[in-house]
Design a protein that fits this description.
The complex is a heterodimer of chains A (91) and B (655).
Chain A (H helix, E strand, L loop, with lengths): L6 H8 L8 H31 L9 H4 L2 H22 L1
Chain B lengths: L2 H10 L5 H23 L3 H9 L4 H30 L9 H35 L8 H20 L27 H29 L12 H33 L12 H35 L6 H14 L15 H29 L8 H24 L1 H7 L3 H31 L5 H27 L16 H31 L38 H10 L13 E4 L4 H17 L3 H19 L5 E4 L1 H10 L4
Antiparallel strand pairs in B: 1-2
Helix pairs in contact in B: 4-5, 4-6, 4-16, 5-6, 5-7, 5-9, 5-14, 6-7, 6-18, 7-8, 7-18, 8-9, 8-10, 9-11, 9-14, 10-11, 11-12, 12-14, 12-15, 14-15, 15-16, 18-19
The chains are: A mainly alpha (91), B mainly alpha (655).
Chain lengths: 91, 655
């Protein structure tokens, strides 16, 4: 809450990314990471549920019959790799 | 009336029970009275500007406190209705269906809509003041959290007059909570009400975690923080890790119910125990979420009223963090009877016994703080002293329950009921009431009357033992929880009757607390110093109530109990530092969007409850619009100029 006028200018000199230049911005980034932590738990729970119930299809079609597992795994990996490659470009 | 409309209304409104009609009438009367008073005294604008749109942590704390007390009343009435039904064999005060609904709402309200807002009230009231901050890290999010809780609770509380209450217990286990066994909107209310307020709880957890780690006054290292802040930090860590699991459990059960999925059904591949596990992975840490802040309050109260530093500060911190971690490894003790096998059960039994150790450490630290202290028996101290024997008994019976083979006998008996009421009331409620009495002058500028407060304590405390000690006994005799009627001749009559009398004594205690508040508004001792208890931490350095910006100058801290040290230095006549010149203060602007956003959540939730998806779509669209608005709103803050600060400070008699 303590943004002081002129911070932006000095920060630019120090070559700090824009979002880190105010205390507000720093708080938000930190808070965002903590939010990611809680999201991590949320998705872990979903994955855990999937792991437990994966085979419980009650005689219906399983994932292998419904989806092209190989293709979507490859697509996901490609997308993730793109993101990882993209990151150094913007940092 | 056309038959269609008639059919519709009889299903929409709960009918047939005179109690419910009485409630209908009183709801209408109270609503009319509120509208009348607000209109008569032209207070609508005041309500909107000062309260509904506020982002000030102190006001949000006060609103949490009021909501928690109202919910304590509602949950308490539920409890009294149950105790009345069980007072004697073959009572026909409540029917089975109604009884089921009441024990469900009693548990849900007490844990999620009473204990949670009560601890959040204390977070909001005390934490920023104790760490020398001007507000929480995200004031706007804080307002959203409150309104999410408020409308979640409102949605849940609608259930008993519109559509029917949930009746599958506060744990809402499938398959009983699943659609085939539980048609109608009741369980949907439970799922949506908890989901909406749960989002708010996660946000509060993140908010205070960031606040405590990033916004402490200069010089206040982690190990110089007041213990209450440590307890909030520990509770926030648990919230961040535990609440998402509840979110998933509730969401999947809702999908089961409204979209015909089979996550937790009996047939078609569902696994009901999956829900039970997820529920308690959240549920056990949850009890530590609500009890750790109470421990923090006891630490503050004991130190203040013994005029001593807290004994064993670092062991207090270590034990709280240990509890936060171990609380994740005990959840299976809620259902040893699932039959997970001796290996699993032993692990969880041992983990449960281990968690008693850090708790024991804390109790000894409080006792050692009092040892040779100059003790003042004020109302907050009285609640703290009342807590210790309570928690000793609750802890001991907890260890008894943790012995897995023995638990097969105790499981779901009244022994268990007595145990968890002993720790939840004796721990959390006593703690919150101690905190309420302790910080009341800080919030409102006057003390609560001590004499009435002590009467309230004694009624409540004695009533507590009279109510719950017989329940241990009747549990051993084989009475199980959630029975609504029992035959004579089992020897259960006398303990149940005594227990009911105790419950009414606690009710008298609650009424006395309310009377104390009403009396003190008018006659309570005004607090002009800002430090009525001769406190030790920074909140007492401010006026009561503090100005909206809290600290005109952020204090510099160089020891624990910072305010106490400052007072000592002043007493020794050490030269005071020249105060820094005032600087403009950066403040967040009030906003009505959080309120509107949460009304939209309420509308969406209501749509899901009754499967009226038009409402859900409208509600969720409004939510999206509100979020969009916030993202592009750059007019969110302002500066208080120095002249205005000087004016305020002078009005408070401070320079």
């Amino acid at each position: 809450m303590e943004a002081v006028h002129g911070d932006l200018h000095t920060a630019a000199v120090r070559d700090v990314p824009l979002e880190h230049t105010t205390e507000d911005g720093q708080l938000r980034i930190f808070g965002f990471w903590i939010f990611i932590v809680s999201d991590l738990i949320l998705f872990s729970t979903l994955f855990a549920t999937f792991a437990v119930l994966r085979t419980h299809v009650a005689g219906g079609p399983g994932p292998a019959q419904l989806f092209d597992v190989g293709a979507f795994t490859a697509e996901t990996l490609i997308l993730l790799i793109f993101t990882v490659v993209y990151l150094p470009g913007v940092m | 009336m056309p038959v269609g409309v008639q059919n519709y209304t009889t299903h929409f409104f709960v009918t047939g029970d005179p109690l419910i009609y009485g409630v209908d009438v009183s709801i209408i009367l109270v609503s009319l009275a509120i509208v009348y008073v607000l209109t008569r005294y032209r207070k609508w604008g005041w309500l909107w500007r000062e309260w509904l749109t506020t982002v000030d942590h102190k006001r949000i704390g006060i609103m949490y406190l009021i909501a928690a007390l109202l919910m304590l009343f509602r949950g308490g009435v539920d409890g009294l209705l149950m105790r009345t039904q069980l007072a004697w064999p073959n009572m026909h005060f409540l029917e089975a269906e109604h009884y089921n609904q009441i024990f469900t709402t009693h548990g849900t309200i007490m844990i999620l809509f009473m204990a949670m807002p009560f601890i959040f009230a204390m977070f909001n009231i005390a934490v920023p003041l104790q760490i020398g901050a001007r507000d929480v890290a995200f004031p706007y999010l804080n307002a959203i959290s409150f309104w999410l809780f408020f409308f979640g609770a409102l949605l849940f509380n609608h259930s008993f007059v519109i559509g029917g209450s949930p009746d599958a217990g506060w744990t809402s286990y499938p398959p009983l909570a699943d659609l085939p066994f539980n048609p109608g909107p009741g369980e949907n209310y439970y799922l949506l009400g908890l989901q909406i307020s749960g989002i708010g709880s996660i946000a509060t957890g993140i908010n205070f975690f960031v606040t405590i780690l990033k916004m402490r006054a200069p010089g206040m290292t982690l190990m110089r923080m007041p213990l209450f802040c440590w307890s909030v930090l520990a509770a926030c860590i648990i919230i961040i890790f535990a609440f998402p699991v509840l979110t998933v459990a509730l969401a999947l059960l809702l999908i089961d119910r409204i979209a015909g999925a089979h996550f937790f059904t009996m047939f078609d591949g569902g696994n009901p125990m999956m829900f039970v596990n997820m529920f308690w992975i959240w549920g056990h840490p949850e009890v530590y979420i609500v009890v750790l802040p109470a421990f923090g309050i006891f630490s503050e109260v004991v130190a203040t009223f013994s005029r001593k530093r807290i004994f064993g500060y670092s062991s207090m911190v270590a034990s709280m963090l240990a509890i936060a971690v171990i609380s994740y490894f005990t959840w299976v003790h809620h259902f040893f009877t699932m039959g997970a096998g001796p290996g699993v059960n032993s692990f969880f039994a041992v983990a449960t016994m281990i968690i008693a150790i850090p708790t024991g450490v804390k109790v000894f630290n409080w006792l050692m703080t009092m040892f040779q202290g100059r003790i003042r028996i004020t109302t907050p101290m009285l609640w703290t002293l009342g807590f210790i024997p309570n928690f000793a008994i609750g802890g001991a019976t907890g260890v008894m329950l943790s012995v897995a083979p023995a638990d097969y006998q105790y499981h779901n008996s009244y022994f268990l009921i007595a145990h968890f009421h002993q720790v939840l009331i004796g721990g959390t409620v006593y703690g919150m009431l101690a905190g309420m009495y302790y910080w009341w002058p800080k919030m409102f500028g006057f003390k609560l009357d001590e004499r009435l407060g002590k009467w309230a304590f004694w009624f409540f405390n004695i009533g507590f033992y009279v109510c719950f000690l017989p329940q241990y006994l009747v549990g051993f005799m084989g009475m199980t929880r959630r029975v609504y009627i029992y035959p004579p001749g089992l020897g259960w009559e006398i303990p149940n009757l005594i227990s009911t009398i105790g419950a009414y004594l606690m009710g008298v205690g609650f009424i006395l607390i309310v009377a104390d508040v009403v009396y003190s508004i008018r006659y309570g001792e005004r607090d002009l110093t800002g430090d009525p208890w001769d406190g030790r931490t920074l909140e007492w350095s401010l006026s009561s109530p503090p100005p909206h910006y809290n600290f005109a100058r952020i204090p510099r801290v160089d020891s624990r109990d910072a305010w106490w040290e400052m007072k000592q230095r002043r007493q020794r006549g050490e030269p005071m530092e020249e105060p820094e010149p005032l600087r403009p203060i950066h403040m967040p602007k009030n906003s009505g969007v959080p309120f509107i956003l949460c009304v939209a959540f309420f509308v969406a939730g209501f749509g899901f409850v009754f499967n009226w998806y038009v409402f859900s779509v409208i509600g969720l669209l409004t939510v999206a619009i509100c979020l969009f608005h916030r993202s592009f709103d750059y007019d969110t803050d302002y500066y208080i100029p120095v002249e205005e600060l000087e004016h305020h400070e002078a009005a408070l008699g401070r320079t």
